[in-house]
Amino acid sequence: MSYTEPHWHHSVLITIDTQNDFTLPGAPAEIPGTMDVIPAMVELLEAYRAQGLPIVHVVRLYEENGSNVDLCRRALIENGARVAAPESPGAQLVAELLPAGAGPMQSAALLRGELQPAGDREWIVYKPRWGAFYETGLDAFLRELNVDTVVFIGCNFPNCPRTSIYEASERDYRAVMVKDAMSQVYEKGIQELSAIGVNVLAKDEVLAILNDLN
C-alpha cells in the first residue's frame, strides 16, 4: 500500500498567489516565469472543472498600512509600495484562471477569513503568510469536501507553494506538485519534495490521468 499515492477522485487543485501584481509583465512584484506557466495552469483548471473536482485559489492581500504583512516585507509596504492591495486591480487573480462569470475578489470578506465562491465547486481563500494552511480554514474545508489529495500549481515555488506543500504533508494529505505549472521551480527543490513523498508530475501526466477518470 502506498500512503502517498494520489487519490485523484478525492483531490483538489490549488492555485497559489497567481495574482496580477505577481504575474503580469511589468507588475510591481512580478515573479519571472509566472506568466509563462499560465497556459499550463489554465489547461489543468479546465480539466478539473470538466471532472467536477474542487478548485481553490489561494491569494495574498497586503493592507496598505502594512498591518497584515510579513515582517520581511512590512517596511516595503509601509514606505509606500502598493502590492496586492485590497480591492486593487493588482490583487485580482489573473483573469484567464477564473471560470466564465466569476466576479472580482471581495477583499473585505476574504480578510475576515470567509471563502469566496468563484464558480461551481471553486473558491478563493486568503492566506496571511506563506503557507495556505496557516491561520486559514482551508484544512477544515477540505476535510468537509472529503479531499485527501492536494495538487499545487501557481506562483513562486521557493516561497508560498513550497511552504504550502510542506504544510499539506504534515497534515497527512497526499501531495502533488505540477512542476511545469509553477514558476521558479528548481531541481534541488524537486529532489527535496520527492524525498518526503510528494508526487512531482508534469502537466501532461496529470491531464492524462484526469482524462482517464470515470
Description:
The protein is of the alpha/beta class. The chain has a single domain (8-60, 92-211), classed as Isochorismatase-like (Rossmann fold). The protein is built from eight helices and seven strands. It has a seven-stranded mixed sheet with strand order 3-4-2-1-5-6-7, with helices on both faces. Helix 2 runs parallel beside helix 8 (203-211). It starts with 10 loop residues before the first strand and ends with a helix. The mean pLDDT is 97.
Features of this protein?
214 residues; alpha/beta; Rossmann fold; seven-stranded mixed β-sheet; 7 strands
> Total helix count?
8
How many domains make up the 3D coordinates?
1
Query: Which topology does CATH recognise?
Result: Rossmann fold
Q: In percent terms, what proportion of residues is strand?
A: 15-25%
Q: Which structural category do the helix and sheet elements fall into?
A: alpha/beta
What is the subunit organization of this protein? single chain
Q: Which strand order spans the largest sheet, edge to edge or round the barrel?
A: 3-4-2-1-5-6-7
Q: In angstroms, what is the radius of gyration?
A: 16 Å
InterPro entries: Isochorismatase-like_dom, Isochorismatase-like_hydrls, Isochorismatase-like_sf
Protein name: Cysteine hydrolase
Domain Isochorismatase-like: 11-189
GO molecular function: hydrolase activity
Per-chain topology:
Elements (H helix, E strand, L loop, with lengths): L10 E6 L3 H4 L14 H14 L3 E5 L11 H8 L28 H5 L4 E4 L2 E5 L11 H7 L4 E6 L5 H11 L3 E9 L4 H9 L3 E3 L1 H9 L3
Parallel strand pairs: 1-2, 1-5, 2-4, 5-6, 6-7
Antiparallel strand pairs: 3-4
